[in-house]
Design goal:
Helix 3 packs antiparallel against helix 5 (about 85-100) and helix 8 (about 165-175) crosses helix 9 (about 190-200). A hairpin with a 2-residue loop joins strand 7 and strand 8. Strands 3-2-1-4-5-6 form a six-stranded parallel sheet, sandwiched between helices. It has a two-stranded antiparallel ribbon with strand order 7-8. By secondary structure, it is of the alpha/beta class. It is built from nine helices and eight strands. The protein is globular, with a radius of gyration of 18 Å. The chain folds into two domains: about 5-15 and about 105-235, HAD superfamily/HAD-like (Rossmann fold), CATH 3.40.50.1000; about 20-100, Transcription Termination Factor Rho, Rna-binding Domain, Chain A, Domain 1.
Amino acid sequence: MSRAVDGVVLDIEGTTSSTGFVVDVLYPYARERFTALIAERSGEPEVARALVQVRAELGEPDADPARIVEALNAWLDEDRKATPLKTLQGLLWAEGFARGELVSHFYADVVPALRRWHAAGAALYVYSSGSVAAQRAWFGHSAEGDLRALVSGWYDTENAGPKQEPGSFRTIAADTGISPDRLLFLSDRAGELDAARAAGWRVVGVRRPGEPYYEQGVQDHPEARTFEDIGEDISGVESGA
């Protein structure tokens, strides 16, 4: 029998939103702007830190801007979840959203469910490989308006850790103050669901046709095709409906 939870932690790509939108719209947007970002803003603390991280990841402490852009584009091609790449993407996307050049994508079943769960008293959080800046911009510029007020906290690979390591989920649970067995994680990736479950969380795999991990499935985890398949009650949402 399902048990109600007090907090729901959301993945973005493939779960709340289309991976295709990220790959086909957001990746090219960032790719076209990396060179200018590095040339014009390398003195800003967040950009400077990301550039140091790129050089460290390459093992090339003297890598010049052209080499850094080359590496960022290669990581984009690989869909690599490198923290400095996500940081720089996030800065560019946030500006694009703020200028009205970008509007984020959410599946039609997502926003109504988030509003219901929030109204029912469940705390909502985001945990994505995309930077916190990118997450906030994404939720702040949807076709249905600014959704950030629904979200109680934001987590990425920098402030929580890698998404397929149980320790990252322990960090999030400690930060939220919610017992792990009262937290529900929604993701389309079995490895992430495994890590959350190993940390004592409840999980549901979101399996949407057309997404990259659809054929792989969610292994032995509870499965939902849409957020409408995930039940709810007055204490929060039920994690196995």
